[in-house]
Amino acid sequence: MRFASLIHEGRTIVTALDGDRLHDLSGLLPQDRTSTDPMVELLRVGLPDEQTAFAQPELPGPPVYAPLVSQPGKVIAAPVNYRDHQEEMQQIGNVSALGFFLMSPSSVAPHGGVVRLPYTDRRFDQEGELALLIGKDGRDIAPDRIAEHIAGYTCLIDMTMRGGEDRSTRKSFDTFTPIGPHLVTPDEVGDLGTITLRTWVNGEIRQDADIADLIWDVPRFVSYVSSVTKLLAGDVITTGTPAGVGTVADGDEVTVTIERVGTLEVSVSTVGALPCPTGGAGSGPKPPETLTPVRQRRTTP
Known about the structure:
7 helices, 19 strands, eleven-stranded mixed beta sheet
């Protein structure tokens, strides 16, 4: 099944998709909510089956997307989890040495939204990634039990300011974590080892990778994260980006497509940008000055 968070009559609601039909699941949420994020509340009570979901009221279209999860408890990211990205960034270590890092929960943005670059004098790159939502709380989860805790998969763009500042700083600006458009349940996604991630900027392909190329696959990475911090329903875990990162600028359109998961699209703006107050521009990981060649040149998605 597929689920989406939408803006409807000035409020965020969570919906189920039946082809082109949207069903409002608000009636399935508890009355004594502890979160104002309906997706988090739905994950806490459990995703409904098709019969229950499709019996809920139908909404008129077209949809206006909200961030898939507007108030995640945590956004957890894998640093350097593809070897080709490790090579293009000239990094000595990868996820095996670096572990994970956190991004601000308020950095999430919706499908169709605008990524706002904050500074006029820093480099910003796009990073397309496969992400997942936690549906069941857990700590110290064994890799062979991870599937019990994953609600589903989605697309994510990890926008990054290059420089020597900490990763969590360079990636936590508001709007820097577009996510969506849909939460797709694992049964519909199927074997992660058979799907491909591709990223385009202005119709030009930049990233083209198999999810099977992850250094730490999803069960291993999520299990490790759960050994450090308790995972809660609504947490976002993103699995890292392959080679092909590159600069983005005002007016650019960024598209990430993951087979059987969906297509996430955002635009880029520098409206309101100012000079950067920190001095890390000349240090930190060194991104390629020219785009890394993709394994096969493709046309606009």
